[in-house]
Known about the structure:
This protein has a single domain (6-65), classed as Eukaryotic RPB6 RNA polymerase subunit (Alpha-Beta Complex). Helix content is 42%, strand content 0%. It has 3 helices and no strands. It is globular and about 30 Å long. 15% of the residues are buried.
Amino acid sequence: MIHPSIDELLERVDSKYTLVIAAAKRGRQLRNGATQIVDCGSRKEVTVGLHEINEGKIEIELSPQSVHSSENS
């Protein structure tokens, strides 16, 4: 079974899209030398990022530019 589960993670974010973007961004930060906040036993940066999100250690901010409405298209 995958841990953390997608159901657990979706309690922390507003959508799967936000989760993917946040985990990828955190993974890049870790690859570029950021300090790991949790000890999850994995060396994979995105997996570590998912664990950090699941434990509430990462604050996810949505920028107004990331939200598009059909009126702006």
